[in-house]
Backbone:
DNA sequence: TTAAAAAGCGTAACAGCTCAACTTTCTGAG
DNA sequence: CTCAGAAAGTTGAGCTGTTACGCTTTTTAA
């Protein structure tokens, strides 16, 4: 099952070559300074082929991984320890994720810098990330015994997913994350936390 | 001061002609089925002129109004009655806004349908709307005696502004709005409201 | 009166993306 | 083993949004 024939191996190789070439060129000269024609050339394929592999367009070339995040989100809600609230569970999941990932792969640094400096990529990343909203909302709703499309659950899922996006670029991301989840857990107090 | 010379009057007229032509064509045949060249033709203007009037591109042709919303937001926070919380104030402001606007202008209906059916326009509308985040966050921060860029205030501003976007497309927008602001005011309870 | 500012024009081009028609390569069922 | 067909790839043309360039015309203001 898991082993793939020559065909799929070649396909994966081409895809990888495209993603690698793109990331290298982007990191070198900036996202907007590199055209898709050039990327296709660098990977020695035609432009049409490039778009067969990445139908979502130029931006998708940068996001080659990003699997199983949805499962992790749902699991964080479903399998949280007893007595822990849903916001707490998500808060914990997001804490320190950044530094953990940077530590795992050195290239991940270029990747983040690239995204942070390119508005189009920031937007795209956000959209990809928010795709999990529905699944997360459903998990929360099931947990709370509410209908699948309950607006409150959808809102909590949405806001929680936006938290990591919001804290990026602030002076102290960890503190900012704490403030946001405090808001989601306890509501707006209007008073300084002390 | 308020009276403008022939020059500015003509400019405004051209701009209006473009916006009108665009809205009509879009409503007729759908956003993606109408090209910018055709719109320019319909307004009897060259394509370059069109882009001089709407430098933000095709999407901007649809959003011709939308002034003073920012001032209204800030005022809602600053001039709210004593004893009313910030979330309450914003909640009140958003309540019934939809029906009020539809009542004011019959064409507003087409406008909304168009936006709801076109992903590119939805995205653009959201971005325009969220531009006020900074101003709103500053107003909230000032009110609470916190620094301008306090993450909690920014988060509240962001979430509040997203509320109207989130409730669109739900079965009962008014109820959904209530739920969202209940979350922002009191935090996540995990229990049915009853 | 006149010079600069601003609106507009047409052409040409670029970038992202798609389409159509065709070739090559692999797969799998008979 | 073979052969039909699916899937990857190619080429090339073309569409759409958008911008740059160089030019003419109108309006303004000194």
Residues:
């Amino acid at each position: 099952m898991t082993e793939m024939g020559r065909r799929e191996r070649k396909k994966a190789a081409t895809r990888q070559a495209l993603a690698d070439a793109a990331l290298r060129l982007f990191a070198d000269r900036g996202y907007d300074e590199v055209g898709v024609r050039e990327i296709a050339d660098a990977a020695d394929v035609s432009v049409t082929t490039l778009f067969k592999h990445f139908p979502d367009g130029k931006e998708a070339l940068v996001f080659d991984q990003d699997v199983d995040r949805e499962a992790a989100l749902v699991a964080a809600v479903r399998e949280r320890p007893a007595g822990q609230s849903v916001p707490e569970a998500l808060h914990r999941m997001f804490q320190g994720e950044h530094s953990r990932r940077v530590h795992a792969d050195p290239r991940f640094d270029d990747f983040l810098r690239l995204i942070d400096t390119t508005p189009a990529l920031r937007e795209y990343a956000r959209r990809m990330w928010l795709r999990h909203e529905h699944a997360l909302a459903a998990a929360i709703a099931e947990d709370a015994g509410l209908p699948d499309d309950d607006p409150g659950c959808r809102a909590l899922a949405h806001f929680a997913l936006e938290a990591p996006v919001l804290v990026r670029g602030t002076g102290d991301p960890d503190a900012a994350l704490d403030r946001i989840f405090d808001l989601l857990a306890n509501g707006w107090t209007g008073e300084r936390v002390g």
In short: Residues 152 and 166 of chain B are 20 Å apart (CA to CA). DSSP finds eleven helices and no strands in chain B. The two ends of chain B are 57 Å apart (CA to CA). Chain B touches chain A through 37 residues (CB under 8 Å).
